[in-house]
Amino acid sequence: MKKFLTNLKNLKNLKNLINILPALSLLVLLTSCSKEPVNIEDHINAENFVLLTTTAPVTTSAGDETETTTAPEEDDSLRFEPANTGVVVYAGENRIQEIDLGYTPVTDDIRSEDYNFDGYPDIFIPYDLSTSDLGIFYCFDSETETFVPSDSLNYVGHLLTTTENQTLIEEIVDNDDYYDQYAEFAWKDGLLTQIRRKVCYTSNVDGQRYEETYEYDENGYEYFAGYEIVDQTEPETDS
Length: 239
Description:
Helix content: 10-25%
Number of strands: 13
Strand order of the largest sheet: 8-9-10-11-12-13
Largest sheet: 6 strands, antiparallel
Radius of gyration: 39 Å
Order of helices and strands: HEEEEEEEHEEEEEE
Oligomer: single chain
Number of helices: 2
Distance between the termini: 121 Å
Shape: elongated
Strand content: 35-45%
Structural class: alpha+beta
């Protein structure tokens, strides 16, 4: 084995000697034709050698312009198709899952928003023949890549709308322009917590629109936080 390694080393040295022979020949030629000493560093540079490689050469041209095209992004918005006892959820053309509900919902009534503000769309599916915006929430689980029921949202069980402040609004009572009531929720430590309630009504005395705000202390007790006039209405006068 020792002899084999010695021969291999000698062979490697021989290959190195062969690789520098062109440079040595050039040096001998220059020194024989000149009376003055020749500095080898003045003549040996990258232009005197040829690089051998198995990689295909890449050619570029200053006059050629390459147009970079970006593939169109796939439409990954959620869409729904009815199933026998549920609904099939798609993201673009990709089938995500079939949710069994025990009934076939009206797909146009299904809502999709990011209800837990984690960056993924969630789903609200109304109950069968529901006319009061009652239903069940499914939130997207990024680990399983499926929609799972949300205990916190389903405790409310009523259609919610999102706000820019990452809160959720529940419309409790909507009696035209006379009396409305809203509840506002926020996520705290993974739990959905009601942070305020607002009551809007039109006064029978002055005809103005008032909004009363109720908030909650650290123990969860509601207290009156104030009111404001949201719609100034001129009282009617006899002409």
